[in-house]
Amino acid sequence: QVQLVESGGGLVQPGGSLRLSCAASGFTFIRYTMRWFRQAPGKERELVAGITNTGITTNYPDSVKGRFTISRDNAKNTVFLQMNSLKPEDTAVYYCNANRLGGDYWGQGTQVTVSS
Question: How far apart are CA 10 and CA 114, in angstroms?
């Protein structure tokens, strides 16, 4: 069955870094655009990074541009999110998403807390 398993979340001080990973299985990974979303308490889920199936094109909202970097390893069916210069407002549950015409798959999420 389809699985997206996130890891790498945790507690970090402001200005620190974390690297999230998402291991995919049960579908043809290389055919899918991969994205990271986040959802903070009381807020809507928002896109924070996307990468095309080949890894050539990435996109970010202004809120994380220059701080977050998405990448993928198609040989290992894994997508990453490198987060630098973290701020308290980055605190949220981070979700991995696989997207292709006609369908989305979601992971269970990993908590990221930025606090001193």
Answer: 8
